[in-house]
Design brief:
The chain has about 375 residues and is of the alpha+beta class. The chain contains 14 helices and 8 strands. It folds into 2 domains: about 240 residues, no CATH class; about 80 residues, Nuclear Transport Factor 2, Chain: A (Roll), CATH 3.10.450. Helix 1 packs antiparallel against helix 5, helix 1 packs across helix 14 and helix 9 crosses helix 13.
Amino acid sequence: MTSQRTLNRLFVLHSWAGIVTGLLMFIVCFSGAVVVFKHEIDLWANPSLAKLPRSEKPASLDAVLTQLNTRFPGATVETIALPDAVNPNYFAFVRERGAPANTRTKVAMRSDTGTVVGPVDSQLGQYLRMLHVFLFFGPRWIVGFLGAAMLVLIATGIVIHRKILAELFTQRWGRSFRVVMSDLHKSAGIWGLGFHILIAATGAWMGLAPLFEQGYKYITTSSTEAAATKPARKTAGDAAAQVPMQSLDALYATAQHAVPGLEARYVSLRRWGTRTAQAGFTGNLNGHLASTARVDVNAATGVPRKVHDPRTAGFWSLVNGLMEPLHFGDFGGLALKWLYFILGMTPAFLSISGTLIWLDARQQRRREAEAEAAQSPAASGIAAAG
């Protein structure tokens, strides 16, 4: 049985953890709920793209790359996004000649012919994702820390509100603002408890796990080992020499042979046209929940250089591959997205309601203190007169 003193301490921890992280928690949770519809938002913000035909047999990657090179001569094609269940088009990120190093142009192409439609006017969905994952410009560990803070809030909330089942249907509408808001706060927390644990745990994992992984590698890898594993430096001539590239479609077939069931969502091109050129194919696994499967292939020789299959890379790699689809809910169609959206709004509401409850309680204590202070001189005067 938890003592009252411990409960009071947990209540203080719960309150201050919510107040300190409340604003950022609201931003991350609200944007996370909305970003479930990232692709739908991008189509809504670019209505001309939604009208383009969807092809049952999309144009080849080679045709798409040829169209891009023809439309943007001298530009660097960095990434090609393939059509998916929501977006019927190809997209590409292109760095045009003379553009700043950090400037990319997002270009849309027809899926049936690969013909370039033009630059994408709005990337609202991507901006929302950047807000959710990085708070625009912050490192991802900040959002991971918020996930850990959310776990603390969940754990302390469960202990504080011990009569969970009794409070499932408790809503006292006729009482004070704080009582009504407190009942709503508890109900939202209880009804969405399982989802909140899932979102907090996966968010904390994706934000903080890379930090622990990098720290572990730094501690366990000595400078001697690092020097021994450092690849030989390529000369400028080797890197810049122009050589013929393998077919991009053939490279994709090689990647699918290396990782059976790979359904690429993105193709990244690095140092294209040189001996060290690579094509990276990143995507999902057909019939498998795990994401982040990737194959890097030497584009000049067609030989795979790096293969990441979460099904065979070990337990922790599989766990890591499950985090993103479980967190964003992009694996079960439109019905699951709506469920994630509705449940995803509840932690945003908890941030607001918790802050309002804390502010109302603070004002109530101030009013009581002022009333007590106002009564004390009068009480002292009455006692002196007597």
